[in-house]
Write a structure and sequence with these properties.
single chain, 253 residues, alpha+beta, BirA Bifunctional Protein, domain 2, 2 domains, 7-stranded mixed β-sheet, 23% helix
Amino acid sequence: MGEDLSATIRQGLKTDVVGRRIIYLPSVTSTMDAAREQALKGAAEGTAVIAGEQTEGRGRLKRKWLAPTGNIALSIILYPNIASLPYLIMVASLAVVKAIKSVTGVDVQIKWPNDILIGGKKVSGILIENEVRGNKVVYSIVGIGINVGLSISKHKEIADIATSLDDDIDRIKLIRSLLQEFDKLYQQLPDVKTIYKSWRDNLVTLGKQVKATWGKQAIEGIAEDVDKDGALSIREKDGEIIKVVAGDVTLRG
């Protein structure tokens, strides 16, 4: 994806909100940073910032996210109602799952809270940053990274946990599908009944032995269920159920 592909991506894009404006940047430190700058300038809702390459991409908890040329890296600017904030991760996760399945036919699953897996390995990650003042959302930015044509073996730090879509997939088609799926789901908010059920059905985490960590705390147990606001319920060995609102989960065994 070398030239300015804004017009190419827009051509045939069937959305009402997401992707109404597309900003293509051949190289950028982070689409999240570029999108934030646009949001503070009053960019239209649904504006998507797409990078040819990301030099300083990041994931949750300030982790580095590899996004060399060929990978898909984009951020979407939104101005949702504050009540919709907990459900953006569900919308984004489902959009990625539906887009990858639609374009490649590959079976994809979600690992709570924000990892998209193929064969148990991470192919996509999602990062959401919100600016809230009082009870008003100033902006929400949803960042999505998808590994495409990434030579995992060349990156030892992720070789055991990551995977990639094949290099020959149609990246433009995948981006279009992702924006369209996101648009359809986003417009259902704040009605989350269908979104929640579909998101829950795609979670690989439930019923598994897991270790959850947040801050300096950690617990192990069986991931029993998720609330409609996205909180994960884990039953420890003594039977006590702990709800984890945010953190990292590792599947055990």
